[in-house]
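Design request, C-alpha cells follow.
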C-alpha cells in the first residue's frame, strides 16, 4: 500500500519493510537448536537449589522453545464512485472521487520479536495505517497515521446585498493525524523512558461569510468567499516512569504549537473601519507543561495517586491592523489526588480531588492605527479557579445485584468579572452539586437490567447555556436466549431549567436600558429498540429503531439596541432512525450481507408572532429556520473464498439526502468496490 500524503505514512511503510526483514532473520535465529546456543545465559542460574516446586527445574543451558507465528493478508482493487447533484450531505465524510483501494495486515509473533503492521487505503484523502514493534519488552515503538475528508456546505443567497466570490465552488477539508510513541526499558532497572509525537494537519477550503455594515451607510453588504485552510498542530512529549518500591513516579514534559500556514484574511475596505482590516484570525499559539505523578502499587486493598502540572500558554498573534495581542499569556496549574479502598471483593470506594487555576495576563493596551485614538485599553483577563470533589461507592453483594452511587461537587470562582457600569456583569462564584445512583440487576441468565437517576443543582451558572436544575433518568434492558435471538431497549429522559438568564439592552440616549429575564425549560427524550435473530443456522437478521427529541422553551431578545424586542419561543429538534441488517453464509466459501438505514430529521424555531412592543413582527423567522430531511443508506456485499489462500469481494452502497424544504444539499452517491484478497 502506498500512502501519498504525510511523512508518517512513508515512515510506517518504510519501517514496516525493515522490520519485516528483521523478523525473518529473527525467526531463523529462533529456529536454531538449543545446542547451538550454549553461549546464552541459563534461565535457572539465579534460582535457589532448595526451591520445592512440583515442576522440575530446567537443566542449565535449557531454553523454552517458542513457536513463531506469522500471518499476512492483503487485498487490492478499485472503488468506483458516482455522484448525483451535490453529494456532500449524502456522503458527508467521503472523498467523492473514484480511486484504487486495498488493505494489508502482517503479524509476526516470536519469542522476542513482535511485529504488527495494519493499513487500509480508500483514496488519497481517506486512509489509515498502524505499526507496532516490540523486542523482548525492552523496546516498543507504535505509530499511526490516518486521514479523513469532510465535505462542507456552500451557503447561497439571492439577496441583493450578498456577494458570492465563488458561486460554483465546492468546499471540503482533509484532516490528517499522525502519532509516534517510543518506550525503552532499562534492562536491569525498573525505569522506562518515553518519547512521543502527535500531529494534526487540516488542509482544504471552506466558505467564509462576514458583513461590512455601518449605520447610515448605503454600501452595506454581506460577503461570501472561499478561505484556504492550512493549519498544523505539533505536539511532542518526553518523560520517564519508574517503580520505586511501594511508590511509582511519572514525569512528562509536553510542548504543543499551532501554526496557521495560510495567514489571516484581509478585506480591502471595511466601510465600518474606514479602511482595510484583517478579520477572522485564528491566532497561532504555543503551550508547554511539566507534569509529575506519584501513585502506589495495589496492596492491601488501598491505592493512592497524586499529580501536579504547571503549564503556560502563549498567544502568537501576527495581526498588523491590530497589534499587541501577541503579549497575552496564560498560566495554568492543575493538581489532583485519588484514593481507592477495597477491603473486600464486594465493596469499593473511591475519593477524587481536582484543582485548577488559570491566571490570565493580557496586554494593557492594543494598537489600532485605523482608529482616531490608536491606543485601546484592554480590560483585565478573567482569572478562574475550579475545585472538584467526588466520592464513589460500589457494592456487589452477589452476582445478581450491583449498586453504584456517586457525588460530585464543582466549586468555581472567577475574578475580574465586570460590573453593571461596564455593561457586562458575570457571576464570580458558582457551585454545582451532582449525585447519581446506578443499579445493575441480573435476575436470571440472559437478562440484564440497568437503571440510573441523576440530579444536578447549580447556583449562579457561569454561562446561560448551563442549567440551574437538572433531572435525568436512564433505563436499559437486554435479553439473549440460548444464542438464537436477543432483544435490547434503552430509554433516556431529562429535563433542565434556568430561570435566571437575563440580558440588558443598550439603546441610544435618551432611552434608558432595561434588563429582561429570559427563562429556559428544556426536555430531552431518547429511546432505542434493537433485536437480532438466527432463524436458521447460517442466517442472522438484526434491526434497530431510534428516537431522539429535544424541545426548548425560552424567551428570546431579538435586538439589544431597542427595548421591548423580547418574545417567547419554542425550539424543537427530532430524528427517527430505522435500520435492518441481514447476514447469510450461503456456503463454506460464500458470505452475503444486506443492510438498509433510513433517517428522518426535522427542526424548527417557533417564536411568537410579535415582540413585546406588540408591533415588531417575527414573520419569516420560523420559515427560515425550518429543516426537514430524509436520508437513505443501502449496502450489499459478497465475499467469496476461491481457494484457501485467495478470494474476492464485491461491495455496493447507495446514499441519498433529500431535503423536504429546499433543494440545498440534495444529492446521491453510488459506490462499487471490487477487491482481490490473498492470505498466507
Amino acid at each position: 500500500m502506498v500512502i501519498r500524503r504525510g511523512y508518517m505514512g512513508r515512515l510506517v511503510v518504510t519501517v514496516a519493510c525493515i522490520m519485516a526483514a528483521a523478523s525473518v532473520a529473527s525467526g531463523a535465529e529462533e529456529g536454531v537448536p538449543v545446542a547451538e546456543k550454549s553461549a546464552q545465559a541459563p534461565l535457572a542460574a539465579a534460582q535457589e537449589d532448595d526451591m520445592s516446586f512440583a515442576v522440575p527445574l530446567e537443566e542449565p543451558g535449557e531454553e523454552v522453545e517458542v513457536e513463531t507465528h506469522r500471518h499476512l493478508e492483503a487485498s487490492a482493487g478499485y472503488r468506483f464512485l458516482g455522484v448525483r447533484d451535490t453529494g456532500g450531505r449524502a456522503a458527508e465524510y467521503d472523498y467523492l472521487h473514484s480511486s484504487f483501494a486495498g488493505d494489508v495486515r502482517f503479524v509476526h509473533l516470536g519469542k522476542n520479536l513482535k511485529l504488527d503492521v495494519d493499513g487500509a487505503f480508500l483514496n488519497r484523502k481517506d486512509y489509515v495505517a498502524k505499526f507496532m514493534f516490540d523486542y523482548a519488552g525492552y523496546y516498543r515503538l507504535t505509530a499511526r497515521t490516518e486521514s479523513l475528508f469532510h465535505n462542507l456546505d456552500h451557503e447561497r443567497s439571492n439577496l441583493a446585498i450578498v456577494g458570492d466570490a465563488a458561486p460554483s465552488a465546492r468546499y471540503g477539508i482533509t484532516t490528517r493525524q499522525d502519532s509516534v510513541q517510543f518506550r525503552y526499558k532499562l534492562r536491569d532497572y525498573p525505569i522506562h523512558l518515553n518519547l512521543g509525537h502527535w500531529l494534526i494537519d487540516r488542509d482544504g477550503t471552506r466558505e467564509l461569510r462576514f458583513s461590512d455594515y455601518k449605520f447610515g451607510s448605503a454600501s452595506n453588504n454581506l460577503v461570501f468567499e472561499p478561505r484556504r485552510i492550512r493549519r498544523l498542530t505539533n505536539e511532542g512529549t518526553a518523560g520517564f516512569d519508574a517503580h520505586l518500591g511501594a511508590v511509582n513516579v511519572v514525569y512528562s514534559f509536553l510542548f504543543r504549537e499551532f501554526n496557521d500556514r495560510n495567514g489571516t484574511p484581509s478585506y480591502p475596505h471595511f466601510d465600518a473601519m474606514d479602511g482595510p482590516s484583517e478579520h477572522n484570525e485564528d491566532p497561532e499559539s504555543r503551550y508547554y507543561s511539566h507534569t509529575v505523578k506519584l501513585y502506589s502499587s495495589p496492596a492491601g486493598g488501598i491505592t493512592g495517586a497524586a499529580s501536579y502540572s504547571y503549564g503556560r500558554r502563549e498567544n502568537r498573534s501576527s495581526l498588523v491592523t491590530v497589534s499587541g495581542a501577541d503579549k497575552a499569556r496564560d498560566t495554568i496549574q492543575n493538581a489532583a489526588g485519588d484514593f481507592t479502598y477495597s477491603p473486600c471483593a464486594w465493596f469499593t470506594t473511591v475519593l477524587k480531588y481536582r484543582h485548577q487555576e488559570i491566571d490570565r495576563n493580557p496586554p494593557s493596551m492594543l494598537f489600532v492605527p485605523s482608529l482616531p485614538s490608536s491606543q485601546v485599553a484592554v480590560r483585565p483577563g478573567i482569572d478562574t479557579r475550579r475545585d472538584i470533589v467526588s466520592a464513589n461507592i460500589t457494592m456487589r453483594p452477589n452476582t445478581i445485584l450491583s449498586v453504584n452511587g456517586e457525588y460530585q461537587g464543582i466549586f468555581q470562582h472567577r475574578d475580574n468579572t465586570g460590573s453593571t457600569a461596564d455593561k457586562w456583569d458575570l457571576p464570580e462564584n458558582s457551585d454545582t452539586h451532582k449525585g447519581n445512583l446506578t443499579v445493575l440487576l441480573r435476575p436470571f441468565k440472559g437478562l440484564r437490567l440497568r437503571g440510573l437517576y441523576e440530579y444536578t443543582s447549580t447556583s449562579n451558572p457561569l454561562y446561560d447555556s448551563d442549567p440551574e436544575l437538572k433531572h435525568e433518568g436512564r433505563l436499559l434492558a437486554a435479553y439473549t436466549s440460548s444464542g438464537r435471538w436477543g432483544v435490547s431497549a434503552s430509554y433516556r429522559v431529562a429535563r433542565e431549567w434556568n430561570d435566571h438568564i437575563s440580558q440588558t439592552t443598550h439603546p441610544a440616549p435618551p432611552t434608558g436600558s432595561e434588563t429582561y429575564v429570559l427563562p429556559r425549560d428544556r426536555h430531552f427524550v431518547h429511546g432505542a429498540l434493537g433485536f437480532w435473530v438466527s432463524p436458521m443456522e447460517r442466517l442472522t437478521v438484526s434491526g434497530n429503531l431510534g428516537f431522539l427529541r429535544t424541545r426548548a422553551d425560552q424567551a428570546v431578545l431579538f435586538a439589544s439596541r431597542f427595548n421591548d424586542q423580547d418574545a417567547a419561543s419554542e425550539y424543537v429538534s427530532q430524528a427517527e432512525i430505522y435500520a435492518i441488517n441481514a447476514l447469510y453464509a450461503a456456503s463454506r466459501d460464500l458470505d452475503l450481507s444486506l443492510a438498509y438505514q433510513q433517517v428522518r430529521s426535522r427542526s424548527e424555531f417557533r417564536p411568537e408572532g410579535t415582540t413585546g412592543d406588540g408591533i415588531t413582527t417575527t414573520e419569516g423567522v420560523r420559515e427560515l429556520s425550518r429543516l426537514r430531511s430524509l436520508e437513505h443508506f443501502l449496502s450489499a456485499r459478497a465475499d467469496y473464498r476461491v481457494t484457501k489462500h485467495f478470494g474476492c469481494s464485491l461491495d455496493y452502497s447507495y446514499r441519498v439526502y433529500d431535503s423536504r424544504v429546499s433543494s440545498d444539499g440534495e444529492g446521491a452517491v453510488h459506490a462499487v468496490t471490487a477487491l482481490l484478497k490473498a492470505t498466507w
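Comment from the thread starter after seeing the answer: thanks! Residues 305 and 352 are 9 Å apart (CA to CA).
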